Amino acid sequence: MKIIKLNAIDSTNTYLKDLSRNVTVQDGTIVTAEAQTQGRGQMGSKWQSKTGRSLTFSVFKRFHGLPITQQPMIAFAVALALQKALQKLQIPMVSIKWPNDIMSYQKKICGILIENQLEGSKVIASVVGIGLNVNETEFIQLPQATSMRLASGIQFNLDEVLVLVSEEVFRQLQALDEGNSEVLKQTYEASLFRRNKVTAFESKDGVQFNGIIKGVADTGELLLEIEDESLQKYEVKQLKMLF
């Protein structure tokens, strides 16, 4: 791994994408920033981070002939990598809130943003942005947020966490590049937050309804059993989980 450490930056994902367009970026390159002013999450949301207490970084992974249809598996692999890394670091009750938020108990501890680079029918590389709450002890007006320290009572070394998490991300993505996507999908489904539990959702039109998470489609959509017992597929922009 090659680690590039920066002070203040708009977005580590944007920096790494721009860098890869202009120079040949080494597979396994990591860009981390002490402060990220324009950090992004899913669907245009902003990721808030605290200097010296959290990690905001992006990793660059090259693929060799990964079919474009396998894009959802990249998100599955990264989410599972974060879950496994946090479990190694003694974080309790780690699960994945679809599509790729990482939870400890009922609260969000990590956000992920994946941007893939395509060439024809292949994925040639991914830039994986990760925002991880490490040593924060309070979150103002963010009742559903937590940190590794709050969840475990342990104070962590940021550099050590960065290396362990990054190694696990590359390990999982390398395994994906070598095949075995069906096992990956099954493992991801087994790790889903509130799987097989009645959960409240809100549609993009503001309609609230109950559903039971049964898994995910090969194309990445959430599979919900709704009140008439039918199985429906939903994309990220189509609904929000209420919990």
In words, what does this structure look like?
With 243 residues, the chain is α+β, with helices and mostly antiparallel strands. It folds into two domains: 2-190, Bira Bifunctional Protein, Domain 2 (BirA Bifunctional Protein, domain 2); 198-242, SH3 type barrels, CATH 2.30.30.100. 26% of the residues lie in helices and 37% in strands. It has helices spanning 12-22, 71-88, 148-152, 158-177, 181-190, and strands spanning 2-9, 29-36, 54-67, 94-97, 101-104, 107-119, 122-133, 198-203, 208-216, 222-226, 231-234, 239-242. Strands 1-2-3-7-6-5-4 form a seven-stranded mixed beta sheet, sandwiched between helices. Helix 2 crosses helix 5. The longest helix has 20 residues, at 158-177. The radius of gyration is 18 Å and the shape is globular. It starts with a strand and ends with a strand. The mean pLDDT is 91. Pfam families: BPL_LplA_LipB. It comes from Ulvibacter litoralis. Residues 1-177 form the BPL/LPL catalytic domain. One of its GO terms (cellular component) is cytoplasm.
Q: What descriptive keywords fit this protein?
A:
243 residues; alpha+beta; BirA Bifunctional Protein, domain 2; SH3 type barrels; 2 domains; seven-stranded mixed sheet; 5 helices
